[in-house]
Amino acid sequence: MRISLFRILIILFVLFESNIAFSQFYNGSQMNFGKNKIQYNEFFWTYYQFEDFDCYFTKGGKELAIYTAKYANRTVKEFEKKLDFMLDNRIKFVVFNKKSDYFQSNIGYYPEEEFNTGGVTRVIDNKIILYYTGNHEDLNYQIRAGIAQIYIYQMLYGTTLTSVIKNSTLLQLPDWYVSGLISYLSINMNTTIDAKIRDGVLTGKYEKYNKLSGIDAVYAGHSLWYYIIEKYGNTVLPNILYITRSSKNIESGFLFTLGTSFKMLTNEWLEYYNNLYKDEEKANREILNTNIKLPKKHKKADIYNVITNNDATKTAFVFNIYGQYKIYILNEKTNKLKKVIKRGKKSQEETDLSYPVIAWHPLNDILSFVTEEKGKIYINQYNTKNKKNEKIYAHFIDKIIDMSYSSNGKELVMSASKNGQTNIYIFNINSRSIVQVTDDVYDDLTPRFIDNSTKIIFASNRKEDSLSSNNYNNIKISNNNKDIFIYDIVSKKIINLTETENIDETYPCEINKNKYILLSNKNGIYNRYTASLDSTIAFIDTTIHYKYFSDVKPASNYYFNINEQNHSFNSGYITEKIDGQTSTIRKFPLGEVLPKNELILTETNKKNANNDTENEVSQNKNIIIIKPNQQESIDSMRINIDNYLFENEQSEKEIKNVYKQIPNDTSRSNNKDPKLVALSAINPDTFSLPLQKNYYLTFYVNEIISQLNYSYLNSMYQPFNPAPQPIYTNPKLNALFKISISDMLEDYRITGGIKINTNLKGNEYLLSFENLKKRTDKQFVFHRQVIESMYDEYTILKNFTHDFNYILKYPFNKFAAIKNTFTVRNDKYVFASTDWINLNTPNLMTNRLGYKFEYIFDNTFNPMLNIYNGTRYKFFAEVYKSIKEDGNMKLNKNNLIVLGFDFRKYIKISRELIWANRFAASTSAFGDEKLIYYLGGVDNWITPKFDNTNETDKNQNYVYQTLATNMRGFKQNVRNGTNFAVINSELRFPILKYFFQKPIKSDFFKNLQIAAFGDIGSAWTGLSPYDKENSFYKKEYYAKPLRVIVENQREPIVYGYGFGLRSRLLGYFIRADWAWGVDDGVVSKRIFYLTLSLDF
Known about the structure:
By secondary structure, the protein is α+β, with helices and mostly antiparallel strands. The protein folds into 6 domains: 1-33 and 860-1018 and 1052-1096, no CATH class; 46-105 and 124-170, Glutaredoxin (3-Layer(aba) Sandwich); 174-282, no CATH class; 298-640, TolB, C-terminal domain (Neuraminidase, 6 Propeller), CATH 2.120.10; 651-685, no CATH class; 695-816 and 823-847, no CATH class. The strands form 10 sheets. It has a 19-stranded antiparallel sheet that branches. The chain has a 5-stranded mixed sheet with strand order 5-3-2-1-30. The protein has a 5-stranded antiparallel sheet with strand order 22-23-24-25-29, with no helix packed on it. Strand 6 and strand 7 (314-321) form a beta hairpin.
């Protein structure tokens, strides 16, 4: 029986094998791929050491570190009280100035994949990674989320190393449980989360709770924890976590604490939210659809920064799918889309949606957009007529958050961050000069020129309507809600357009003289409002005093939040993005947005559930009096960042008053500064700034592996055993212990490992050092291995191998890299003294130098364990040269050349159901020395079977041997030779997770997968499996004095098929396969495979 499709693939492999570099197969199909971290900048780190935590920061991040310390100090005390738990270890905050700096970090980066999941523990060293996005509200969330995660992990997994290892193995928690609780503790409830929960409930998504993943699972878990605390009170939370840890069971935590089963709890939870939101569903709301043309697959994309040009003939927007963004321009006349730029690579990992920022030039067809490339900020000016782009390097700031042109197009007003502060800047296009307008700790966002570019309107979380702030100690910065302000560029005065408590307003735009539109969440959903500003004379003495008042009215009653809006002043068109099940993008004339009659908005759960007193937006509230003699210069508003206070902190004057009242012996009794005692007496959040220290390397335990496995510790070829019959030494059951330590920033890693055999003979050792600090990763690896095998029935051969590898890896981007490995290898062959002949047999020794080149690509991601989406492959070339034994360190002429590749494609069929495919091939046919491949079996086979009846080609100069897998349905060595090629195809179906709508309590059943697979392949000598020189066609029989060679006509290609089950048990991922092999048209007896390995 001939397989035509596979013949074609074999022919293609033969045709191209001399022209491309391929992958290497040291031990079957187990092969490391992995993504990359790229370092463009070098950072100099310093830190502050406080009483309970440390804050690490780099140049320009001092203000962020101080802010983090003050906010974290208060948050730790809050969580300590709420969770009734004290942390055992210090917290380490690592603060990056921006998100792109964080993406360069190696923290949390594990370049090597573990194929055996059992006993793998990654130690969380109370480390919290923060980055500044230009918004302190987001920084607050990151701080709270990081602290919440540490509390939860310590409460669930313990603090000692032994308890962490034990509990991480036995306690497997779903994403909604941990991530949902972290989200709840970070933000109790806000407008965005309320909208996401409302959408999940009313669309029925939460009824299929187990099918949720990613951010949907986070918000579902958030809503469940919110419901539990609302109904049962905050005191139940630590009890639930404690019982969950003790029982290693989620259900028990809820049952014994709340007195209700988890099934009943989820039913009550859904009923609660359905009742809560049903009235909102019935309300008469505007539900609108996208009315501009969008690219294909727009439902999977994030679309933002939608803006129309001056005459409303072109609309530009950013189209972002999994981190790969494009800027499109829609020509309204032709209704055609034009792609301006395309940047980035698609990735399921966290993406940066803050770039690119775009703005239309008011007088010309120029689209300006901001990009960040290799850590540098560029302002691009793209001419839509001649398609030319001019780049301006914006070295003067760290990040541009928003921007807009002046009416004459000569200036850009920007919201930009520098040194941990977000302020307003005016950038002159022609002179390339910049003027800083504000300079304080408040977040000044979404600025726009108004009143013929003589004023700036913006949103800010500042509490004063004046720029004057001489008493720095009274500055309050913890407010997350923003008001709208207007700044006069000439007089340098500022007035409030709105002044509201517990209401957030943003995206202001001018529509007429003293008339504006803005977005507000007053009713619990971000809707559009109009605001009119007027003034009147308040009184007259030596000069005229004015009072200003604004009238704010609703202009929309949408069902979903308006995330952003922009207004083209000359054309009168508005663009908006509405957040719903998918993004809705709309463009319409100004007249459509202004209601003829006053709207009555539908109040939402977020509005009704808010227990805080809210000041209504009214004329009386919005009267702001400005006196001409007030000193309101920009310079006077500079804030001493070291001395600002939170809302609940007291002024220095109050502290001094208390200090005077403290007896002298109070401070001496506890050896503390009397001033600090006074600070604590008023407010325990207050603390002094310690000495700034340089960061020096300190190593911590990073990863611990303690497991049973059936594989070797390091990837390397096994020396060829020249016994009369083929022999391959499979690893037996062994205990593997490996520990990795790294510095705090994880730039340097040291790994040591030992594999202990059950007979305590032939132990294996590994020592590795990695330097990941710069773009080129460097690694040094030393490895020692002992393999004992039978040469014949009288001879035991021991092989001692020592190899040293120097590895250089250079990443091109997140997914692609090249790797160069330089190897020195020593093999010593010792004949055990089983008799006088072996006792007198001299030991043998060989030394070799090797070089390996790899090109690696990996853009896969894991929706769940052993389920992948995406593509990964590796091309490989390797050469070995032996060293002469005369002591002159000269190289022999003989060489071993190995070429190969491994290509894997994972296709999503439906949710977690995937079709996994692999095509792999390799050859060693070009060198004087050869590598033999034994085809058959699977990786990490617990009870491997080797077929030693299939002889090897005695005419080949074999020096190494390895396995070629997967080929299920056969023993190892169903075929052998200097070449091999296999195709593996497998359907992976997590059946219970796919069909069950409620959460699955058991980790085993949650990860239970059914697989149906087929394998096809061959190993051969010669040009192809059908080459007459292929030793497979010849079988030699020898009986003195005759030697008989028999030629056969069997099919060299074999294939197998079958089914299997996979799941995780006690931390180990176990695969059970039942397979039938087909050899020369004959179906063999079924073979059972039990393995401990991920993927193929």
